[in-house]
Design goal:
The chain is mainly alpha-helical. The protein has 9 helices and 2 strands, in the order αααααααββαα. The chain is globular. The protein starts with a helix and ends in a 33-residue tail after the last helix.
Length: 275
């Protein structure tokens, strides 16, 4: 059984790595760099999540768990960190500002659509929006970020117009790569949970057909985007009411991070010959 699991994992990881390696090669990242990154994560996870209760994790045990020599474990631990927390913070702040813009009645019209905002003002203004939904971040910095990634634009009247109801950077490759790290990790964590916790699985579904004509895809993309956006906005409103950052009076215990992700995919079918 263990050999079968190992074989299944090898096949799954090979499939998983193909698009990732394609991305790395297109951006000039050589194998040695990827190898060091993988070793660093192996060492970090072994150190932080596989310790023996009540005992400090030793380099020898990390070496046994990872298959790396003690010398290599020490070398990898000394490598500089690769986390781009700045990008993650920009993503979270910008996403929250846009979420407040499309959800809060202060910043929407009678139809529920986000209104164009002046930068300053007592009522519905961009500065007030940022103050409510992005803490102490400077409003000008948030605006510059949203302009940079193509989420907003200036109108002829000098107001700020929202171009997209969700934060999906269109111009910044750096930001999109940052999303790769967070969103793909969330999906893999859900799958890993469902493998281990068969009695309490997380929701994980997809719908896929492999004999579709090219002409069907534009309608599918449009329909999927529209229906998915409606669902996500509904979930966003529900979650916001229960998030202590927005509602400090919410009771309960612990601190959890939870959400729902939706993605669209398409590719040429390579499983057999065309009919």
């Amino acid at each position: 059984m263990k050999a079968q699991v190992s074989q299944a994992l090898s096949a799954a990881v090979t499939t998983l790595l193909r698009p990732l390696i394609r991305l790395l090669l297109r951006n000039g990242v050589p194998y040695r760099t990827f190898s060091d990154l993988a070793k660093r994560v192996y060492v970090d996870v072994a150190t932080e999540e596989f310790e023996i209760l009540g005992r400090k994790q030793s380099k020898s045990r990390v070496s046994i768990l990872t298959g790396l020599s003690r010398k290599e474990v020490l070398r990898v631990k000394r490598l500089p960190g690769s986390d781009d927390m700045g990008a993650l913070q920009r993503y979270n702040r910008a996403a929250r500002v846009i979420s407040g813009w499309v959800r809060d009645r202060i910043f929407t019209d009678e139809s529920g659509d986000p209104v164009d905002l002046p930068f300053e003002g007592e009522n519905a203004s961009f500065k007030r929006l940022v103050r409510l939904y992005s803490g102490d971040a400077p409003a000008r910095a948030i605006l510059d970020e949203l302009l940079r990634v193509g989420s907003v634009e200036h109108t002829a009247e000098g107001k700020i117009h929202l171009l997209d109801r969700s934060y999906v950077p269109k111009k910044s490759e750096i930001e999109k790569i940052g999303i790769l790290g967070t969103d793909a990790a969330d999906l893999i964590s859900t799958i890993e949970h469902n493998i281990r916790q068969t009695d309490t699985p997380f929701f994980q579904r997809k719908v896929c057909y492999d004999h579709l004509p090219c002409e069907a895809l534009p309608q599918l993309k449009k329909m999927a985007g529209k229906k998915s956006q409606v669902l996500l906005e509904s979930l966003d409103r529900w979650l916001c009411k229960r998030d202590r950052d927005f509602n400090p009076q919410v009771g309960g215990t612990g601190r959890k991070r939870a959400g729902v992700g939706i993605y669209y995919f398409e590719e040429d079918y390579s499983g057999g010959a065309e009919p």
